[in-house]
Amino acid sequence: EPPALPAPGAYVKYESSKAGKRLERSQGAFVRRLPRVPGLLLTLNTSERYQRVKGFGGSLSDAAAINILALSAPVRERLLRSYFSEEGIEYTLLRVPMGCSDFSERPYSYADVPHDYELRHFQLAEEDTRMKASGAQGARGGAASRGGFGARGADAERVPGCAPQIPILRRALAMSQRPLSLFASPWTAPAWLKSNGDVRGKGTLKGRAGDRHHRTWAKYFIRFLDEYAKRNVTFWAVTAQNEPRAALLAPAAFPTVAFSAAQQRDFIVRDLGPALARSPHAARILILDDQRSHLPAWAQVVTSGSLTGGGTRGGTGASSPVCTRQVLGNASAARHVLGIGVHWYLDALVPARCSLEATHRLFPRHALLYTEACSGFLTLRFAVVLGCWQRGDSYSHSILTVLNNYVTGWTDWNLALDLEGGPNWVKNYVDSPVIVDRRKDVFYKQPMFYHLGHFSKFIPEGSQRVGLASSRRCLLCNLEHVALLRPDGTAVLVVLNR
Questions:
Q1: Is 225 exposed, middle or buried (CB count within 10 Å of its CB: 0-12, 13-18, 19+)?
Q2: For 6-27, what is each residue's pLDDT tens digit?
Q3: What are the chain's domains?
């Protein structure tokens, strides 16, 4: 249900617990004098202002779409409403892979004809046109500028093995009362553009920034945006590459493209940035899209006074000559860049203050956004653990930590997975806030779902973090917290008690 705003002098509390409470509502009134000294005292300071929030959400991977569309129409509708509607947790961010990811049923790209540098044979895959963005092509509806479907029609598409479907993105926007911002991320380039000649495995783009391989790869982004725009879908942002450094370490089966910070900067300056500027699309660029252990160093690249091309002949990934310069200090790069995407997988290695806050201090005009997170990765037994409260705690801990270190939003990985944690064609199974049992035609909301809801439901876009001081006794307790001021003037306090 929509959150009920409190009357002046009152508060409304929503609580979830391991014992079984799920966003359970209660209310009370503030008092001027306490009958006894409190064990915990938090003091709100709304004059102390920090970053504004973009939002919270998840990712519409192929695997998520397959699981959602495997449900009967009424159950599918209930799942989507749980995420996007006013009666649900009201996601406002949605990440869409640009082509295949490991959470697909097969490796593919949109341009598999070798040496098609003009991308005359570019076309979206069935995973896009039948599951995510089908619908009549033509004029855009008024909501298209919000980053989602503009048309509200109920045209259905038949997906193999499923009942007729209304495309997922169309339904998500239709039921959302808040603006829904989409951003796209590529995992791999077509095989003929990569140094290893395969969409899978370690490899860079062939050549160097500014050459025909890099120009074609930039054009690939534009064609993706073009094709979705024909279906009345617009994107708020694109990331320059999913996990560009992890690509050097990924197993051979994973779809990847490797970039160094210098290579990514030069690709943006010479190819992707100008291509977007010439296009009709308003999408801007998020750099990194990888672990915070690379921050703030990712924003400091190797150059010799002016751009060197950033790439290497033959795609070996070697660095350019030496002299330190900040990537976002480069005006040519910075004007195309909206912010910095971060993944959570190695957060334990580097404190948030040393990475996130340090990066914000260097580049306060560029937003920090968490673009991927999930539980159940690298587990020895089961990726999916139904009802695991500890995994929900880990989500809240992460979100509270990063919000208190200048991050503007947090994006979960797959919206829905099956009981195994897939499908995933490289068997990289993980957990999800929603687990689908196709055989029983049901879905399960995991504790992670409710933990996310304590943020996405109550902290709309435009909310601003404010000061929150804890009493001396509170410093010894196992509580984490953040305070924000919503655009409607209501204060929100989120507290985690582990």
A1: buried
A2: 888 899 999 999 999 999 999 9
A3: 54-460 (3.20.20.80)
Residue type, 244: P
For the question of whether the overall pTM of this predicted structure is more than 0.85, the answer is yes
Alpha-carbon gap, residue 219 to 209, rounded angstroms: 13
Pairing state between β 407-414 and 367-372: parallel
Angle at 184 between CA 183 and CA 187, to 5 degrees: 150
Rounded to whole angstroms, what are the CA distances from 78 to 88, 163, 322, 443? Answer: 9, 16, 56, 9
Cβ pair 257, 189 in contact under 8 A:
yes
pLDDT in tens, 108-156: 999 999 999 999 999 999 999 988 876 544 333 333 333 332 233 333 3
Q: Quick one: how far is CA 232 from the chain centroid?
A: 21
Q: Is 243 a catalytic residue?
A: yes
- CA angle 271–274–275, rounded 5-degree value: 75
Cα gap 236→338, rounded to integer Å: 10
Residue 148 CA to residue 141 CA, distance in Å, equals: 10
Exactly one of 372, 420, 461, 480 is catalytic; name it. Answer: 372
* 372 assigned to active site: yes
Tokens of 364: 């306060």
Q: Which residues contact 71 (CB under 8 A, 6 or more apart)?
A: 79, 436, 438, 441, 443
Please pick, among 127, 227, 243, 461, the residue that the annotation labels catalytic.
243
